[in-house]
Write the C-alpha cells for this entry.
Amino acid sequence: MRPPICKICDKNLEEKDDGGLIYFKKRQSDVEWEKRMEEIGGVGHPPYAEWFCKKHFKKANELRHLPIDEALKNLMLEGT
Ligand SMILES: [Zn+2]
C-alpha cells in the first residue's frame, strides 16, 4: 500500500478518519495486474485504488463505478 495521501490535493492523511481508500471499477489492465500478482504471490498497491481526504472522499466514492482514470479526470475537472 502507498502512504495515504489524497490523490486530488496531496493532503497527508495522518488520522484514520481523515479520509479513506477507494477501489474503483477494474479495467482490463487491472484484472491482468491482479492475475500477475496472484501468480507471483506479490503484493502491491492496486492500480485501481487511491486514497482520498475527507473533503474529496464523498465525491470520489460517487464515481467508484467508473474506472479510476475516468473518475480522476472527473474529479480533477471539478477542481478542489
Ligand atoms: Zn483531498
The chain has one domain: 16-77. The chain is about 40% helix and 10% strand. The pocket of zinc ion is lined by residues 6, 8-9, 11, 52-53, 55-56 (CB under 6 Å).
